[in-house]
Amino acid sequence: MHASPLNDQVLLVTGGAGFIGANFVLEWIAERKGTIVNLDKLTYAGNRASLAALDNHPRHIFVEGDIANTALTSELLRTYQPAAIVNFAAETHVDRSLHGPEDFMQTNVIGTSRLLEAARAYSNGLPVAGQKAFRFLHISTDEVYGSLEPGAPAFTENSPYLPNSPYAASKAASDHLVRAWHQTYGLPALTINSSNNYGPCQLPEKLIPLIINNALAGKGLPVYGDGLQIRDWLYVGDHCAAIRRVLDAGRIGETYNVGGGNETRNIDLVIMLCNMLDQMRPLPKGGTYSAQIAHVADRPGHDRRYAIDSSKIESELGWKPKESFTSGIRKTVEWYLDNLDWMQDATGETYRQWIETNYALRPKVPA
Q: What residues make up the domain containing 86?
């Protein structure tokens, strides 16, 4: 492990009951000696069950609340005196942003701006040494860069912002706010733009857990359009390791792109998942889960390809993903098969209503 000035410090983590946030919190508590104050609004995407291993843990303080509540965030900062803020809190699902963009503007834009202001006031009130050591790390996405043409170079930190969905636009706005607060006010901020994450504790509205959940339930496996959209897949544990490295050693004011180097077509990923489930949880009457694949009408403005160039974080900070795509996917499938209670808890009535809204009215299309 690299020596870290944050090893035994307090962190304020926002959105720490969500998918990436929960994985980060669990790994940080396991590897470091400090305390995490975990602020999460517990919307549909926040799940306390993901943090069950930390129930009554003395170094995990959970607070239900909104990053847009400046009085609350300011009080948490005054009370716990964190050495860093890690901002995962966001609305993140493209399809939901198409149906209701306002929630994305409120959390990702207004919420981020208010959190930045609370962080600025707190940082300015610290002793000089504390101001120099303080960090604000903002977690973002490759979707801010838009869509890549086949054969085009992968996104770098200097790629232009060309968001194509309300979600991507709201995250692009939040990235610009973080940059502005650093440039204008000197807030010691950093940003990570990552590719598509996968792994344990991801809500089954996203592709990989959706396919696993529907396959086990005997339901159709929805694939948008022709299924030839390409994504760069990053195992969440590798992303969390990158976040720790950027916190420990990243250069203030910099952006770091983090990808898994696993460009894969959606349809090939779905078939890969079906093949693994065929081996690990065979259908009782034989056959293959791939027979459940159903191509449905594509989403509006669907980006065709994402790819991340991670050479900056690799060369500057020595980070590289440890999981191969095959090993990461296998770990992920095994986790969901071993945690069916978590899956059932995460796919309650509110989830089912959303799935009905998003998929039931989408006509099937030829493959």
A: 11-205+234-262+305-323
